[in-house]
Amino acid sequence: MKHKKGFTILEMIIVLTIIALIFLLTIPNIQQKKEVIDNKGCEALVEVVNAQILLYEIETLETPSSMQQLISKGYVKESQARCPDGEKITIVGGEAKASK
């Protein structure tokens, strides 16, 4: 009797079930990590904007009242007005803050 090489349907179902379980266990963890990364990215961007506010104050001897002032003078880019998670960066009392 000659044996054919290959996988049986049962073996394939078992392997696919194991792969599906691995995905189900790892996907929520990946989503949590994305939230942490977005939060840290936003915190870092706020610190960058705060540094640019300080530079603006040193060079112009006045405090910027809006992000648009920093953007128009070239201290930050338009893309730096929003965090990776979509929060808008505003200047309140001479300090950058992220808000939704």
From TrEMBL:
Transmembrane segments: 7-27
Annotated GO CC locations: plasma membrane
Taxonomic superkingdom: Bacteria
Compartments it resides in: Cell membrane
Membrane topology label: Single-pass membrane protein
Key words, A-Z: Cell membrane, Membrane, Methylation, Transmembrane, Transmembrane helix
GO biological process: establishment of competence for transformation
InterPro entries xrefs: ComGC, N_methyl_site, Pilin-like
Family membership: Belongs to the ComGC family.
NCBIfam families linked: IV_pilin_GFxxxE, pilin_ComGC
Protein known as: Competence protein ComGC
Species the sequence originates in: Breznakia blatticola
Organism placement in taxonomy: Bacteria, Bacillati, Bacillota, Erysipelotrichia, Erysipelotrichales
